[in-house]
Structures are given as structure tokens and as C-alpha cells.
Amino acid sequence: MIVAVRDVRFADIPAIVALLQDGHRRSIYALDPRVAVDVREVKRLLVQAIQRHGHTTGGGCWIQVAETDGRVTGVILGTLVRLYAIFTPLMATDVFWLASEDVHPADPMKLMAGMIKWAKASPDVAEIRCATTGAIASEKKTGVLLERLGMEPFGEVWKMKVEAQ
């Protein structure tokens, strides 16, 4: 088995879209007919992220995939934004961080470790954040990985579902 974590290439976009669609099928949103992966928007977002990959100023991105035997099995997209949208320093946050069910067990941690290393390289970054939610019911396992990487719990995420009208 050949596994690798590497920077995203434009040719990876269809495989990332498929991975995100698979994640949607495994999520709590799969049964809500209003919630679907907007393929056009995903492609736009990925192209923009690839163009900004590695930048260490506001709007910079970090985008990598995990690959197993030539197949994309994980992805992370991180970005740099102003802390709380109004403060002078930046914070790094994940836009999405997702793995297939058959990802190599070490790869999700490698993906996040890469984002953390990139974020720490920017002199303007004051904080790195990653949220865990119940969208795919893996928030406890994800939290353990994040703690191993040096993160600590910071508040809670609350939501309210709005029913279709």
C-alpha cells in the first residue's frame, strides 16, 4: 500500500468533490433534501484555494490531500482570516477536514499537522482553530486527534435546525 499526504493539484478536484459527496452521504444532512453538495461552488472554492495555497497573509489557504494507492482518501482546506473578523492578528481555521472510511489511520492527523505547521509559519497568526461537530458523528475521535496535536477545547458549538417552509 502506498500512502502519501501532498499538496492538491487541479487534477484532484473531481476526486475531492467525490470525497465531499461521500461525506455528505455519511452525514446528518443526507436525509435533508435541501442540503446537497454544490459542485460548482466546491470547484470554485478549490481552484481559489489551490491558487492561494501556502500564502501566509489574510486569505491564504492550506489545501492538501491524503492519497492511498493513487486514490484521494482525505482532504483538508484551511484558511487565514482575521481573529473574530475584526482584530488585527489572523487565525487559521479549517474550512473542511474530511477522510474516507478507508483512509490510512495516520493520514487525518498528518493533514491537520500540515495545516498547523503552515499556520505557525505566519508571523501574523495568533490562533489556530478547528471545530468538531456531530455532522458525521466522529467528533469525539476527532477531538482526541486535535488534543494530540496540542489543541485544547475552546467553547462549544450550538445549532438550531430550521424546518422547511
Describe the structure.
With 165 residues, the protein is of the alpha+beta class. The longest helix is centred in the first third of the chain and has 14 residues, at 39-52. It has a single domain, classed as Gcn5-related N-acetyltransferase (GNAT) (Aminopeptidase), CATH 3.40.630.30. The chain has a five-stranded mixed β-sheet with strand order 1-2-3-4-5, sandwiched between helices. The protein is globular. A hairpin with a 7-residue loop joins β3 and β4 (90-99). The chain has helices spanning 13-25, 39-52, 107-120, 139-148, and strands spanning 3-7, 61-68, 71-82, 90-99, 125-129.
Sum up the structure in keywords:
165 residues, alpha+beta, Aminopeptidase, five-stranded mixed β-sheet
The profile of the biggest β sheet is: 5 strands, mixed
Number of domains: 1
Provide mean pLDDT, rounded.
95
Per DSSP, what share of the residues sits in E-state strands of 2 or more residues? 15-25%
CATH structural architecture: 3-Layer(aba) Sandwich
Individual helix count:
4
Order of helices and strands: EHHEEEHEH
Low-confidence stretches: none
Helix content: 25-40%
The backbone outline, from C-alpha atoms, is globular
The whole-angstrom Rg is: 16 Å
Distance between the termini: 49 Å
Multimerization status: single chain
CATH homologous superfamily identity: Gcn5-related N-acetyltransferase (GNAT)
**Strand order, sheet with most strands:** 1-2-3-4-5
Output the CATH class name: Alpha Beta
The CATH topology label is: Aminopeptidase
